[in-house]
Design goal:
Radius of gyration: 28 Å
Largest sheet: 4 strands, antiparallel
Order of helices and strands: HHEEEEHEEEEH
Strand order of the largest sheet: 5-6-7-8
Number of strands: 8
Shape: elongated
Distance between the termini: 70 Å
Oligomer: single chain
Length: 159
């Protein structure tokens, strides 16, 4: 006859030391392999975010410009987009956050928006990565298009 007490004593109640060491070793190897790849994904995501911001700047500037043309306004006359007054200069939005920032639909805290000069507007991904940025430059003459740059959107600046 089998004694229930003997059966209970023979059952294992946990992991052996060897099993724990094997699991810890496997987890260590996986983390050593996965962490660098995860860091690279963050850089790629930041680059994609900034390229999206550049596209928003282009679309917002072109939309404001087309509104001004269709309404037959002067090159410095403001336009209204989604109940926001967009200040214009040479038929394109100025560098004020309330101008090109609003026209592009960009806002804080998603981005760091800065009018770096009277003609240059900079958008960076966050305060920790100020060089990971795109720029919008208001045209200096009527009839000229604005210029855009994503020269700062490289892995070295977005890391």
């Amino acid at each position: 006859m089998i004694n229930e007490e003997d059966v209970m004593k023979s059952k294992q109640h946990g992991f052996t030391l060897i099993e724990l060491i094997v699991v810890i070793t496997i987890l260590g190897l996986l983390s050593a392999y996965a962490l660098p790849r995860f860091a690279a994904l963050q850089v790629e995501a930041r680059i994609a975010k900034m390229n999206g911001a550049l596209a928003s700047l282009k679309a917002g500037a072109n939309l404001a410009h087309s509104l001004q043309l269709t309404q037959q306004l002067g090159p410095a006359a403001s336009v209204t987009m989604e109940l926001q007054t967009i200040l214009m200069n040479n038929a394109y939005p100025t560098t004020a956050v309330a101008a090109i920032g609003s026209a592009a639909g960009l806002s804080s805290p998603d981005y760091v928006l800065t009018a770096t000069s009277a003609t240059v507007f900079t958008v960076s991904s966050d305060a920790s990565h100020p060089l990971c940025a795109v720029t919008y430059t208001v045209p200096t003459a009527l009839g000229a298009p604005p210029t855009y740059s994503n020269a700062g959107v490289v892995a070295a600046n977005c890391t």
